[in-house]
Amino acid sequence: MGRALGGLAKRNKEIKEATSPIIKEATSPISPPLLVGVAWAVRDRIDAGDLAAARRWLDWIREDVPMHTATGRRLAMFWTIGAAPNREAMLDAAAVILASQRGDVAGMNRLRQRLTQAASDSERMKLDLALADILVERGQPSEALPHGRRALTITPTSDAAFVLVCRALVESGRTDECRSVIAERFQRSPDDPAALRMRVQVENYDGRHEEAERAGRRLIALAKADAADWNRLAWAALFRPPVTEQAVQDSQRSIQMQPAYVNLHTLAMLYAELGKTSEARDVLWHRLDLGGIEQPDSSAWLVVGRIAEALDAREAAMAAYRKVEVPSQPYLVAFSSYALAQKRLAELAKR
């Protein structure tokens, strides 16, 4: 199992080198207050009639906000670097930046108003997608669902609209309706990657891990699996003990593709589950060190607890498990670090 990362020293070096770019990107200096400030600066420049300056602000923020962030993803729908100055388009771009920040009202009002004025399906699609995405992120899935459904009606093949509809349904506790949407997607394309990916998530949330694995392996067979897909397969193995070498290989593959926090957490937990305490501690240490985290966060305490168990430190393990926090969204609980921690606590209580 250690061979894929080499010896302990080599593993330290490889994980640190692979993870550093991700950490650097994740700690981008573009903070929410700065984003809000830029959005208002764009609006001020437009009000002053200085469209050229407003465009420069948008070009700068569009270039510097990473695409993997929610704001970056949404802004890309509304603004292209180097686009000709256009008052309404730039106001829409500023609005989507504002609306992407929690507590905003002005940006949401602008997007909703623009939706009522939309003159084409493409314009309606863009606005509905943005509103659905923002409302799902704000924990308002019921409000997001109509926007997602309209977008999916306009473009039935849209992956983004499909995913947002399913997310809204799942987060509203309507997983059976989500399965129906997935089935409709499969009717159009039996091996649709977005549908397979959503099936994996829904089945895992419902504790049907064998069905989830079949869909995940199909993604792999189609050469469509991304880092998150490999990580879900590896993480699900923790809910179907005993952990196997295949799970470790799946996790290592996810890290090779994207050494993100969540993927490193999975590998650390798999090593801990297998009693590989040195490997688990090493991966966990880098996850915390590269993130500038001095103390374990909620999910990290799960790994700490499992390492303590492997070292026969029962009380320390139980204390660590009790620090793993319950997810804020109920649908996430069953497939979470919290669920695993609670299971370990129940087992230890019997001893």
Quantity of strands, as a count: 0
Shape: globular
User: How much helicity do the residues have?
Assistant: over 70%
Order of helices and strands: HHHHHHHHHHHHHHHHHHH
Q: What is the terminal separation in angstroms?
A: 30 Å
- In DSSP terms (H or I, runs of 4 or more residues), the helix count works out at 19
Class by SSE composition:
mainly alpha
Biggest sheet overview: none
User: What is the strand content?
Assistant: under 5%
**Radius of gyration, rounded?**
22 Å
What number is the mean pLDDT?
91
Q: State the low-pLDDT regions, or none.
A: 1-16, 18-28
How does this structure look, described?
The protein is mainly α and 351 residues long. It contains 19 helices and no strands. It has helices at 8-26, 32-47, 51-64, 70-78, 87-99, 106-117, 121-137, 141-154, 159-171, 175-188, 193-205, 209-221, 227-236, 245-257, 261-273, 277-290, 300-310, 314-321, 337-349. The longest helix is centred in the first third of the chain and has 19 residues, at 8-26. It is globular, with a radius of gyration of 22 Å. Mean pLDDT is 91; it is low at 1-16 and 18-28.
Summarize the structure.
With 351 residues, this protein is an all-alpha fold. The chain is 71% helix and 0% strand.
List the main descriptive attributes of the protein structure presented here.
mainly alpha, disordered N terminus, 351 residues, 19 helices, single chain, globular
